[in-house]
Design brief:
The chain has 160 residues and is an alpha+beta fold. The protein has a domain at 7-93 and 107-128. It has four helices and three strands. It has helices at residues 14-23, 28-41, 53-68, 117-120, and strands spanning 48-51, 80-84, 123-128. It has a three-stranded mixed β-sheet with strand order 1-3-2. Strand 2 (80-84), helix 4 (117-120) and strand 3 (123-128) form a beta-alpha-beta unit. Helix 2 runs antiparallel to helix 3 (53-68). The longest helix has 16 residues, at 53-68. It is globular. 34% of the residues are buried.
């Protein structure tokens, strides 16, 4: 039986989280809840352009069901991944930090060569900010606002 929600789960490395998920020590849903709690607690950092909590939890539950049936679809099966805002993910805004793409929501996910999810079976449901293509040196996201670095809030953390 997998462990209940525990804030320490959010401290795991990617490798450790994948191992715990694979071994059944934790469910993808519980792990996703722990990470979502961290995202909620740090919302002021403005790190994501989109974070669909319901979608994250739904895809985590699906990953758990697949695993319970004895199938693992890849090394990151059930691990939530945040994707840089330059790769299309079906149903999730892709702006590339460009105001002209403010309302663009792709119908298809980027090809396997550019996005890890199809090969790894990770839960891919959020988008990390990306500096504007127009002014990449300054890396200012003019679409929604500039993210903070988290460590030095006077500095910008664009994830690039």
């Amino acid at each position: 039986m997998a462990a209940a929600a525990n804030s320490s789960w959010s401290e795991l490395s990617l490798r450790a989280a994948a191992a715990h998920l694979r071994d059944g020590d934790i469910t993808a849903e519980v792990y996703a809840q722990a990470l979502l709690a961290v995202c909620a607690a740090n919302r002021s950092l403005n790190a994501f352009i989109s974070l669909d909590r319901d979608r994250v939890l739904s895809e985590a539950r699906t990953a758990d069901l697949v695993r319970m049936r004895g199938h693992l679809l890849g090394p990151l099966h059930g691990v939530p991944l945040a994707i840089k805002d330059v790769f299309d993910v079906a149903g999730s805004p892709t702006t590339a930090g460009t105001p002209a793409l403010r309302d663009y929501v792709p119908r298809h996910t980027a090809p396997r060569q550019t996005v890890a999810q199809p090969r790894s079976a990770a839960v891919m449901t959020s988008k990390v900010r990306f500096g504007s293509k127009v002014d990449i040196c300054a890396a200012i996201d003019r679409v929604r606002s500039t993210p903070d670095s988290g460590h030095q809030v006077e500095r910008e953390g664009n994830g690039t």
